[in-house]
Write a structure and sequence with these properties.
One of its GO terms (cellular component) is mitochondrion. It catalyses: a quinone + sn-glycerol 3-phosphate = dihydroxyacetone phosphate + a quinol. Its cofactor is FAD. Keywords: FAD, Flavoprotein, Oxidoreductase. By secondary structure, the chain is an alpha+beta fold. It has three domains: 182 residues, FAD/NAD(P)-binding domain (3-Layer(bba) Sandwich), CATH 3.50.50; 164 residues, D-Amino Acid Oxidase, subunit A, domain 2 (D-Amino Acid Oxidase, Chain A, domain 2, 2-Layer Sandwich), CATH 3.30.9; 57 residues, no CATH class. It contains 15 helices and 20 strands. The strands form three sheets. Strands 3, 4, 5, 6, 11, 12, 13, 14, 15 and 16 form a ten-stranded mixed β-sheet that branches. Strand 12 and strand 13 form a beta hairpin. The longest helix is centred in the N-terminal third of the chain and has 20 residues. It is globular, with a radius of gyration of 25 Å. The N terminus is likely disordered.
C-alpha cells in the first residue's frame, strides 16, 4: 500500500487531504491590496516569483474575489478595475498587480471565452506583414514585425509548458518561388535577431515529402521543386489566457468571471468615472466597485463598454471574422505545419498540428459583432479549397470535425483625423476621463499591449506604482521550474487506477500520454492535479479493499 499512496512532495497530498476532508484550505488567502513596497525591482521580482511558484499556493475562490471587489468602496478604491477577461485584460491585471497596484478584473462570461480562444494558435511576427513592409516600403508594418518577433520569444519563455517553437513548411512549385521564399524567410530570421527560434532552411522535394508525407508533389501542370521551412511559435491560447488570470490572482489581483459591468459610476457632476456597477451573472445580484481608473479591454465589445460612459462615443472597432476548421490528424504530421502562401484572393492559410488533430485557417472578412459568431459554409469551403491543391489526400467536407469563428477587433484611433487606414497594431486612448481603452493588436503582443495600457492608466489616475513593469521576467503559474522532461516525474511518482483482466480495479502506473497531458496543460502544477487524483484513487481503493477504513473510531 505504501508504494501505491505516495507523492513526490508531501505538501501536495497533505493539502489535498485537507481540502477533501474539511472543504477548505487554511492557506487560502484573499487578494491583498498593495502596500507599495519599495524594496527595489529585483526584490519585488523575486518575491513575486516565489509567490507564484509556491506549490501550496491556491487561487482564491470566486466568493473571496467577489468580496474583495465589493470591499473597494469610495473611501478605499482600487487603483485599477479591468473590464474584460481575454488575453489583453488578464495581461493588464497581471502587469498592474506586479507593479504593486491594487487591481480588480471582471469578465461577463468566462475567461478566454471569446476571441482569445479562437485564434490560429500561433505566436508569430507575421510573415505577410514583412512582405507588405518590403514591397510597400511601409515602416509601420516593419516596426510591427520587429515588435511582434520580440514578444514572440517572450511569450514562449513566460509559458514554456503551453508554448513551443513549430516549424512551418512553405511549398515552392517553381525555382523563382524557392528563391523568393528563401530570401524572404531569411529576412524574417534577420529581423528576429537574438530572438530567433531556429534558422529557416531549404529542403528538396524528396526531403519535403519525407517530412510532410501528405504534401502534393505534382498537380495542375506543376511539380514541387522544394520547400522552405521556417519557425514560429505555437500555443494553447485558452490555457495561456486562463494562466494569466490565475497568475494575476496569485499575485494579488481580484479576478471574477461571469461578472458584467452594467453602468459606470461618475463623480458628482459627471466629470470622471470612479467605478462601476457590476452584476453577478450567476446569482443576479449587483454591487458597486470603485476604482481610480477603469481599463476597458473588451476586445470586439469595447465600443459597447465605451457607450456606457458616452452613448455618443465614436466607434473605433472594425470587426473582422477569422474562421478555422479542425481536420483529422492524418492531414498533417506531428510537429510540422504547412503554410499556403497565396490563396485565390491573396490571403495566407495555415495548416497546423493541434492536440492530435489538424487546424486549418484563417479567413479575413467583414462581420457583425455577436457573442457567439458562427462560421459560414462559404468560409469553410474557402479553407478546404485553399489547402486541397497542396495535398495528395482527398480533401472532403465530411472530414471537417468542427469549426469556429473569432472576431478580430481591428481598431481605429477615435482621436485621429484620418481613419482611412485600419491598423493591425493596438490603440490606447482615454476619450472619457477615468476610462482607458486598449484594443486592436494581436495575441502575440498582449504583454506589451498590457504594459502600454497600465502606463496610460497610471498617468490618468496619477497612481503610485512600486516599480516599473516586471512581466517580461514573470513566468505564468506552472511555468517556473518546468522543462520538457517534467512529464517523467509524473509518470514515475504518481499512479492511476486500472481495470485488471478479472474486472477488478487496481492501482497501476500512470501512462506516458496522461503524464504528458498533465505536464503540458498545467506545467509544474500538474503535480497538484495528480495528487488530487491520487487521493481520490486511494479513497476509492480503500473503500473496495478495506470497508472498515471509513468506520468511525
Amino acid at each position: 500500500m505504501s508504494s501505491f499512496f505516495r507523492a513526490r512532495r508531501v505538501g501536495y497530498t497533505a493539502a489535498t487531504l485537507t481540502i477533501l476532508t474539511t472543504g477548505s484550505y487554511l492557506t487560502l488567502r484573499a487578494p491583498h491590496a498593495s502596500s507599495n513596497n519599495h524594496g527595489g525591482p529585483n526584490g519585488q521580482l523575486e518575491s513575486l516569483r516565489r509567490k507564484i511558484a509556491d506549490p501550496t499556493a491556491v487561487v482564491p475562490s470566486r466568493g473571496v474575489q467577489k468580496k474583495h471587489l465589493i470591499g473597494a468602496e469610495r473611501s478605499n478604491p482600487l487603483d485599477i478595475l479591468v473590464v474584460g477577461g481575454g488575453a489583453t485584460g488578464c495581461g493588464v491585471a497581471l502587469d498592474a498587480v506586479t507593479r504593486g497596484l491594487s487591481v480588480g478584473l471582471v469578465e461577463r462570461d468566462d475567461f478566454s471565452s471569446g476571441t482569445s480562444s479562437r485564434s490560429t494558435k500561433l505566436i508569430h511576427g507575421g510573415v505577410r506583414y514583412l512582405e507588405k513592409a518590403v514591397f510597400n516600403l511601409d515602416y509601420g508594418q516593419l516596426k510591427l514585425v520587429f515588435h511582434a518577433l520580440e514578444e514572440r520569444k517572450q511569450v514562449i519563455d513566460n509559458a514554456p509548458h503551453l508554448c513551443h517553437a513549430l516549424p512551418c513548411m512553405t511549398p515552392c512549385f517553381s525555382w523563382f518561388e524557392a528563391l523568393y521564399y528563401w530570401v524572404g524567410l531569411k529576412m524574417y530570421d534577420l529581423v528576429a535577431g537574438r530572438r530567433l527560434l531556429h534558422l529557416s532552411r531549404y529542403y528538396s522535394a524528396q526531403e519535403s515529402a519525407e517530412l510532410f508525407p501528405t504534401l502534393a508533389r505534382k498537380g495542375k501542370d506543376r511539380s514541387l521543386k522544394g520547400t522552405v521551412v521556417y519557425y514560429d511559435g505555437q500555443m494553447n491560447d485558452s490555457r495561456v489566457n486562463v494562466g494569466l488570470a490565475c497568475t494575476a490572482a496569485l499575485a494579488g489581483a481580484a479576478v471574477m468571471n461571469h461578472a458584467e459591468v452594467v453602468s459606470f459610476i461618475k463623480e458628482d457632476g459627471g466629470e470622471r468615472i470612479i467605478g462601476a456597477r457590476i452584476r453577478d451573472n450567476l446569482s443576479g445580484t449587483e454591487f458597486d466597485t470603485y476604482a481610480k481608473v477603469v481599463v476597458n479591454a473588451g476586445g470586439p465589445f469595447c465600443d459597447s463598454v465605451r457607450n456606457l460612459a458616452d452613448k455618443d462615443a465614436k466607434p473605433m472597432i472594425c470587426p473582422s471574422s477569422g474562421v478555422h476548421i479542425v481536420l483529422p490528424d492524418y492531414y498533417s504530421p506531428e510537429g510540422m505545419g504547412l503554410i499556403v502562401p497565396k490563396t485565390k484572393d491573396g490571403r495566407v492559410v495555415f495548416m497546423l498540428p493541434w492536440l492530435g488533430r489538424t487546424v486549418a485557417g484563417t479567413t479575413d472578412s467583414n462581420t457583425s459583432i455577436t457573442m457567439l459568431p458562427e462560421p459560414h459554409e462559404d468560409e469553410i469551403e474557402f479553407i478546404l479549397d485553399a489547402i486541397c491543391d497542396y495535398l495528395n489526400v482527398k480533401v472532403r467536407r465530411t472530414d471537417v470535425l468542427s469549426a469556429w469563428s473569432g472576431i478580430r477587433p481591428l481598431a481605429t484611433d477615435p482621436n485621429a483625423k484620418n481613419t482611412e487606414s485600419i491598423s493591425r497594431d493596438h490603440v490606447v486612448c482615454e476619450d472619457y476621463p477615468g476610462l482607458v481603452t486598449i484594443t486592436g493588436g494581436k495575441w502575440t503582443t498582449y504583454r506589451s499591449m498590457a504594459e502600454d495600457a497600465v502606463n496610460a492608466a497610471i498617468k490618468s489616475g496619477k497612481l503610485n506604482p512600486a516599480n516599473s513593469s516586471l512581466t517580461s521576467n514573470v513566468r505564468l503559474v506552472g511555468g517556473d521550474g518546468w522543462d520538457p522532461a517534467f512529464f517523467t516525474v509524473l509518470a514515475q511518482e504518481y499512479t492511476r487506477m486500472k481495470v485488471s483482466h478479472t474486472g477488478k480495479v487496481v492501482p497501476g502506473i500512470m501512462d506516458t500520454a496522461a503524464a504528458k497531458h498533465l505536464s503540458h496543460s498545467y506545467g509544474t502544477k500538474g503535480e497538484n492535479v495528480a495528487a488530487i487524483a491520487q487521493v481520490f484513487l486511494f479513497l476509492h481503493y480503500m473503500c473496495f479493499t478495506s470497508p472498515l477504513f471509513f468506520l468511525p473510531i
